[in-house]
């Protein structure tokens, strides 16, 4: 079976497991885990920031970012299908008490002008004050699209002008950096906070971090404690993350190339896919023009030995490449997919 459902399915390699078992450990709650401290230090340098906090998941990093920067009743703006808005169980409303305003985006990208049009940056007796703009890079629901740097700069220019902070949900930040061929701090240095994740394309079993300006992160350790996210000998996980930063970032280019191989072969096989829409490691296949029911399509794919997952849009299937796949796997998966979806049931 070739499993293309998600890059969260990666398993730690032997090298990573060795890094985990040999990592020096201590009690992280009292800042005595040397591996976590080293990881946090590396991350601030890598992302052009001042402070970092290791957390169990990217969802927690995002929610801590809100709890640190948004007061109850304040507004956050971002692309309307952002993971924070759609897939974090209503956390922004439940935890931070935020008013969430979702903007229509193009490939996950919204503009400074869209923010300017709706942002309330002065106190008002009626309107919620806008506290934060949220950028998701790469953007999951749009198909792993990377924000073009010019669009990011435009958003920052507007937010600087309006006095608005920017949070980047960089669960797949390193995919974006590799796709754009820039160092990660070119994407993150102007943000006030950034969430990064180690358990997706970077291949770790768990772990994420919130990175940002020192003043933004000042309450972050306390908030993490409140959410139950403070770990003890967390160096076991931070050791995996440090290994991943060293060994698994540049190789994301292979995942992107494999996604393009898959998309190209599917297009050549007559399926409705535009390989030009593949920026990183996601491939979306819209079944609408094939007249296929999505669950039926997934069953057919499974019986041909390939697993796709459901994308956000109801007629779309998603494949995600990662370090567990070789190019040969993607070639086989493409042939099986064409075979499964082309023939009459
Ligand atoms: C863009 C984005 N942000 C945040 C997350 C949350 O990551 P986790 O499930 O590891 O908390 C995901 C997970 O898929 C994601 O795609």
Automatic annotation (TrEMBL):
Keyword NAD included in the entry's annotation: no
Protein name, UniProt field: Threonine aldolase
N6-(pyridoxal phosphate)lysine sites (modified residues): 200
Domain of life (superkingdom): Bacteria
Record EC number: 4.1.2.5
Cellular compartments per GO CC: cytosol
Major enzyme class: lyase
Keyword list, A-Z: Lyase, Pyridoxal phosphate
Species assigned in the record: Actinomadura coerulea
Cofactor(s) the record lists: pyridoxal 5'-phosphate
Entry similarity comment: Belongs to the threonine aldolase family.
Lineage, top ranks: Bacteria, Bacillati, Actinomycetota, Actinomycetes, Streptosporangiales
GO molecular function: L-allo-threonine aldolase activity
SUPFAM superfamilies to which the protein is assigned, alphabetical: PLP-dependent transferases
